[in-house]
Structure formats: C-alpha cells, structure tokens
Design goal:
elongated
Length: 370
C-alpha cells in the first residue's frame, strides 16, 4: 500500500511524496517514490504504479531495472549501423550531461521530458530545442523493442504535444533570403583578392559553385573527381530525413557549375579539398567585412533553386539538379514566375571562370524532362 507524505520545501511550498514499499518474507524487496506539487497527483501516480506492479512479472522486472537513459543513448550509438552525423552525435552527448540522463528509463514520463526541454530552452531557440528532442525521440522509438529498455514513446509524444502548445518547440522559419547581384559581386571581388594570399581558400570558386550547382556546403567538400561525369555529379551522403550516410545521389550539373570545376586543380581526390568549418568561417567573415547582413551560405542553394524555376524549369527538372527526393519539398517555389535568368551574362562568373568560346549557360528550360 502506498503512503503519501506532505513535506515542506525550502521555498515554503509543500511537496507530496508518494512511496510504495513491497515486502517478501517480511523484508522490503522493492521501494520507489516520487514527489509532486499536490496530493491528487501523488495519489494518481501511486495508484497507477501499484496497478503496474501487480501485473504478472512486473515486480521481477522492476527489481532488475532496464537501465538509465544515458545507457540507452550509449546503446543506440553503439548499435547503429548507420554512421551518426556530427551534429546528432554532439546533441546526444549534450543530453547525457543533463540530469534526465541519470533517470531509469521506465521512470521517465512526459513531465520529465517537458522539464528537460525547459532547461534546454534557457539560452536556446525553440527550433534548437526541437532538434534536440527529435534526436532523443529516435532513442525512444527503438530502445524498448530492440533491447528491452523501457522507454515509452507515448510519453515522448505527449511531451511534444504539450511543448508545441506552450511554444517551447517549433520548426525553423522558412528563409527566403537571396543574395543580390551586387552582393555576389562584392563577395567575388573580396574572395579573389584574398585568394592571392598563400594557402588561401578559393572561396570565390566555392561560393559561385554553391549557387549554380545548388549544392549544400557539406556536399561540396565531399565531391570527388571520380564522382564527376559530363553534365552530372554523384553527391555523397545527401541530406535526407531519417537517412544521410550512404545516401548517394546522381544530380545534374548546370554548365555554370562545370565551368567552376574546370578551374580547380587536381591536387587531391576531392574537387574542393577543404573543411566545412573553414568554408563557413570564411563566408561569415566576408559578409561581416562587406556589411552584408543576414546572408548565410545555405542561402546560395535557395538562390540556385529559385533561379531554375525563374528560368521556367519544372519541378521534376529542378529536382534532378537539387536532389530533392520528394517533389513536395519544392512546392514552396510553385508561386515563382518564369521571368528569365537574372544571372545570364553575369560578369562575376566570366571573371573567375571564363567560357572557352561563348557563354553556354542555359537560358531556357531543357527541351524534355530531366
């Protein structure tokens, strides 16, 4: 039988501790307790817990805990046959440093997840908190079925409903920032000047390639010379929900992007043998120096995709370049009108990647679907 005890707290409030003790042969073999802000919640928890422990085999299972959340995370990382990305690995390590990681899996309820999210929310945006919980959800989804660790996905679902209602988590706002021609001119001029320094990154080539190829930063640095064929390139580990590592996709390569590649020396297996940190830092620093506000490297991909739609390309044709697996992801561009290519004859491209004869960049959509 459970006992409910009222206990004064340091802040003057009163907590109600529900405790369950089970004896066998006159000895206490199992005890568990939890404290609540009101007596009603304490009684509700105690009644539910007693009912659970009365089920066949429940007490024996309780006497042999399934492990802590930290152990479940470690098991998840060790068992995953897919390589875990850098960001996901960092998030999971950060979760392990929170107090929730020390809780036994079966004791974690939605309120514990909500409290964890509230701690995460101090100094972080709701979008970041959602990212943390999304990675943690993956552990909840498989821990019980795969290893018998009693993490309840339903508790995670209930927590997410509550957090969304509270505004504590939310998806990132859709960005529509596109670089202007003047901004790209300034960036190219800045990077060309910097490229004269010893061991400087050819950021003028990387930046322009990102725009015309529609490739993400991490995809660019993984492209190898062996991945290149006339008019197309193999994009390795393309970002895709639920799958990234090993997700290799052939994508069409616009002529402007091929002109950039032609400027790169074959000094390494990779066409752009740099690091994402170096590329990101150089781009951010240049924007700051030039006074270009709120422009991110990823906005170059958005510009590249937008350009293709403005040139009159269809969703299937654009998807062959961008690599979008779901055409629905490109519906956000459906409002764009075919107004032509604003980058046709752009002097910045001719400056860093002169055409051999005439500019062969496409001005209209392909004759047939790609």
């Amino acid at each position: 039988m459970a006992t409910i005890t009222a206990r004064p707290r340091h802040d003057g409030s009163v907590g109600f501790t529900a405790q369950i003790r089970i004896k066998r042969g006159g000895k206490v073999v199992y005890t568990t307790s939890q404290t609540f802000d009101n007596e009603k919640d304490a009684k509700t928890w105690a009644a539910r817990k007693e009912k659970e422990l009365a089920l066949p085999g429940a007490l024996d299972a309780a006497l042999h805990p399934s492990g802590t959340l930290e152990q479940a995370i470690n098991r998840y990382v060790e068992a995953s046959r897919k390589e875990i990305g850098k960001t996901k690995a960092q998030v999971l390590e950060a979760i392990k440093r929170d107090s929730i990681a020390g809780m036994d899996c079966e004791d974690i309820r939605s309120r514990d997840i909500v409290a964890f999210a509230e701690r995460l929310g101090v100094g972080r945006q709701p979008q970041t908190v959602l990212n943390y919980l999304s990675h943690l959800s993956a552990v909840f989804r498989i821990a019980h079925g795969a290893w018998g660790m009693r993490l309840d996905p339903a508790e995670m679902d209930r927590a997410m409903v509550a957090l969304k209602s509270l505004g504590a988590v939310q998806k990132s706002a859709r960005r529509d920032r596109r670089p202007t021609i003047d901004e790209m001119n300034d960036l190219v001029a800045h990077f060309v000047d910097r490229s004269r320094r010893r061991n400087a990154l050819p950021m003028h080539l990387v930046t322009v390639f990102a725009m015309f190829s529609t490739r993400r930063q991490e995809e660019i640095i993984r492209i190898r010379w062996d991945d290149l064929q006339p008019g197309r390139v193999l994009v390795r580990d393309m970002k895709n929900p639920g799958e990234k590592m090993g997700n290799h996709v052939w994508c069409d390569l616009p002529p402007e992007a091929e002109r950039i590649i032609a400027q790169m020396p074959r000094r390494a297996p990779e066409i752009f043998p740099f690091t994402t940190d170096a590329v990101s830092a150089s781009f951010t620093r240049a924007c700051k120096v030039l006074g270009i506000e709120d422009l991110r490297f990823h906005d170059l991909r958005h510009e590249g995709v937008s350009r293709l739609f403005e040139m009159g390309w269809t969703i299937p044709q654009v998807a062959c370049v961008s690599g979008h697996r779901s055409w629905q992801s490109l519906q956000r561009y459906s409002h764009m009108r075919a107004i032509g290519d604003r980058w046709v004859g752009w002097a910045g491209l001719d400056q860093i990647a002169p055409a051999k004869e005439v500019d062969d960049g496409p001005n209209t959509a392909p004759a047939t679907d790609a």
